[in-house]
Amino acid sequence: MKIKTPWAWVPSLYFAEGLPYVAVMTISMVMYKQMGLNNADITFYTSWLYLPWVIKPLWSPFIDLLRSKRWWIVGMQLLIGAAFGGIAFTLPTSFWLQGTLFFFWIMAFASATHDIAADGFYMLGLEEHEQAWFVGIRSTFYRLATVFGSGVLIMIAGNLQVIYKNSIKFSWVIVFYGVTGIFIALWLWHHYVLPRPKEDCNHQKKSTQELFLGLSKMISTFFVKLPIKEVVTALLFILLYRMPEGLLGKISPLFLIDNVHAGGLGLSPQELGLVQGTIGVIGLALGGILGGICVGRNGLKHWLWPMVCAITLPDAVYIYLSYALPSSLTIISSCVFIEQFGYGFGFTAYMLYLIYYSRGAYKTSHYAFCTGLMALSMMLPGLFAGALQENIGYRSFFIIVMLLCSVTFAVTAFLKIDPNFGKKQKNVE
User: Fold this and answer.
1) Whether pTM exceeds 0.85
2) What is the mean pLDDT of residues 346-352?
3) For labelling alongside 381, which of 9, 65, 133, 281 has CA 20 to 30 A away?
4) What are the CA-CA distances from residue 289 to residues 191, 346, 425 (Å)?
């Protein structure tokens, strides 16, 4: 029996795309914190896990060289499931740190490859009108994966630690084996339901030489598509706009879960999953939705500075939290919601500028290159965020983050954007 409806595979495909990313970037940090690693080591190790997404545009053309995108999707889902199982298997051992980092690396590379194949397959497996219709569906299920990973799974681990009397390793072993089962089920499901579009099965292969020539041309044209001054301005914006968030994003969950005597708020995993993994993600999504609506009405240039303020000024809530150290979950949740809502609203400007800069020839490849630089902009600050925090404490760290928001304002001030970009065009009969 052949299942033709995209409802059978689009939601589950993008749930499978989001879950390993959350595991690599968020769950790993919480687990390592509970296992006793210091903040400097946690942020350094986990920031390197951004690397596959940084260099993803460089190997994406070679996905077409070997096999179909459908083959890559189901293959990577099986590999991701194996990586989850590997983490669960090595956690109880004496080499748990080396073992789990090894499997997180495998998961990161498999997840980045899965992203390439899944996004390409989406274009091949759906008609043009279906692609537009399911854009919201794929985004929704990607966010649901985020809530499930950073919210539900962390809360499950916390509850298991209560049931099994604070057995941290055992609780995470159960969680990771459980996710292994989920990915085996996703692998079997997609092996059965994913369509086999002719364009995917019979696409014309390019030689390695042709791919290298195309890749070199894509990179070279990326740096000469505008006058050199505008290119430098664009690169500085892409790399530095999110610098404060690159620091804050690595430390905020550690601050929320750290002991009160160490300057943190001392949240349990259950509370962290609720505050940041659920309420925070909802705020992020709502901010992004509002940002898209606003830009659609008045254009990106009109909303650029309000969005810059939104992505920077709410960071001040962490200064308040580090001084007040509130025990009220309502106050903490409200602060995280405000910060994440502002981030979601302000991040809209960043993503739309990537699209704006990528216009013209090679727009798909140039956008992929921009997203690689975006991942690099988060990776570099994260490498030393933990070491900085440990040397100066949470309060001073959050003050430095706020001061560095001036960098975001500075790199934005020199941008040149078409006033009509982003506006919803009215149909003229």
Assistant:
1) yes
2) 90
3) 281
4) 33, 11, 19
CA dist 180 and 84 (Å) reads 5
C-alpha distances in Å from residue 16, one per residue of 37, 128, 156, 187, 401: 29, 23, 19, 9, 33
Which tokens is 294 given? Answer: 């606003």
Helix (H) or strand (E) holding 343: helix 329-358
CA distance 359 to 342: 27
- Are 405 and 244 contacting, i.e. CB atoms less than 8 angstroms apart? yes
d(CA 14, CA 35): 30
Q: Is 300 exposed, middle or buried (0-12, 13-18, 19+ CB in 10 A)?
A: buried
Judge whether 243 and 407 are in contact, CB under 8 Å. yes
- Over the stretch 4-26, which tens digit does the pLDDT of each residue have? 688 889 899 999 999 999 999 99
Contact 123, 131 (CB under 8 A): yes
Of 118, 113, 107, whose CA–CA distance to 79 is shortest?
Answer: 107
Residue 377, amino acid: S
Sequence-ordered alpha helix ranges (H) in 194-227? 198-201, 208-222
Query: Where is 54: in which H helix or E strand?
Result: helix 51-54
Q: Which two tokens stand for residue 226?
A: 């505008």
Task: Please provide the DSSP assignment of 60-102 as one string.
Answer: GGGGTTSS-HHHHHHHHHHHHHHHHHHHHHHTTSTTHHHHHHH
- Could you tell me which of 403, 398, 381, 303 has the C-alpha nearest to residue 345? 303
**pLDDT, tens digit, 9 for 90 and up, residues 152-203:** 999 999 999 999 887 899 999 999 999 999 999 999 999 999 988 877 665 5
Q: Which of 263, 281, 330, 304 is nearest to 152 (CA)?
A: 281
Q: What is the mean pLDDT of the chain?
A: 89
Helices (H) and strands (E) in the chain, counts: 21, 0
Q: If DSSP codes are grouped into helix, strand and coil, which group holds residue 225?
A: coil
Calculate the CA 375 to chain-centre distance: 8
